[in-house]
């Protein structure tokens, strides 16, 4: 019987959750049409939440998290996928209530599987991961709304996070002037090398004036944090510009008024990468594999073995991680 290594989160006394690298069996995996031998995974904030018992992400334990995986098909009951094919699986229910990618094997429905685009390696796919897909969806929403490099600066919040750093890389590759917002002044050089032209502190985006709108400064915003940073960014948009929002690390709530919308014709677009339809998902992956692939992609990532994942998840929960974390299986 084939066994494999996996991160397993289990409930321990006093609402504590233990993270251990465990040997599991293929027969433990859920039913599904495609068995994938995972070569790389990557870390996302949702994995960190799953690792500490967040019931909004994972309902029952023991559980293997990991919303991202890239690898090779080892068994398939679906005509679209043959043994030996390179594939990407991200989001849907992977790593939430379905055994996830922080393991050497996953078994999933064929409808979750994306063939790896040509000119993208398995490693590159997981440097992007859900963070890259999410950032790509944000860029796509803003460009469909009319954003162009000549419109002006684009703000990216939570800049050193996975989504933030991917948004900076993609926007810079497309010729945008990116302004990064971070809580880590020591990451300034890293963010400038990633492609930002300017780095602001979180405090610079924490307007407490009560004014309905502020000076117009940004042609677009990709927000990963919510809260007052998002509220301030919205008040600072240029006429007709939009924000694409995906996250809540600062707060799920933000206070706004109708004024940015009725005085400046601004818009907010929500990003949901988890249930993103396959047609859109495939198009974004194709772009990430070609015109949107940052030249410095490998500089945006730290590669770690599965054994180092528990420690890195803790760091993410404390907001201390830098850039994207790639996991080698
Ligand atoms: N909707 C979707 O489809 C989707 C997909 C992926 C992720 N998300 C969400 O997007 C968010 C970011 O995900 P991620 O994977 O990029 O997470 P991550 O790698 O942990 O990065 C989050 C970043 O947010 C900043 N941050 C942390 N605590 C903060 C606070 N209290 N106030 C303001 N900023 C803070 C930090 O960057 P700085 O220190 O540089 O500020 C941190 O590196 C999460 O809320 C996640 O759930 C949503």
- Mean of the pLDDT scores? 96
Q: In percent, how much strand structure appears in the residues?
A: 25-35%
Q: CATH topology of the largest domain, which one?
A: Quinone Oxidoreductase, Chain A, domain 1
* Beta strand count: 15
Number of self-contained structural domains: 2
Number of distinct helices: 8
Category by helix and strand content: alpha/beta
The largest sheet, given as strand count, sense and whether it forms a barrel, is: 7 strands, mixed
Quick overview of this protein structure:
The chain has 329 residues and is an alpha/beta fold. The protein contains eight helices and 15 strands.
Describe the structure.
The strands form 3 sheets. Strands 3, 4, 5, 6, 7, 14 and 15 form a 7-stranded mixed sheet that branches. A 6-stranded parallel sheet has the order 10-9-8-11-12-13, sandwiched between helices. The mean pLDDT is 96. Strand 1 and strand 2 form a beta hairpin. It starts with a strand and ends with a strand. The protein folds into 2 domains: 147 residues, Alpha-Beta Complex (Quinone Oxidoreductase, Chain A, domain 1); 141 residues, NAD(P)-binding Rossmann-like Domain (Rossmann fold), CATH 3.40.50.720. The longest helix has 23 residues. The protein is built from 8 helices and 15 strands. With 329 residues, it is of the alpha/beta class. It binds NADP nicotinamide-adenine-dinucleotide phosphate. NADP nicotinamide-adenine-dinucleotide phosphate binds next to helix 1, helix 2 and helix 3.
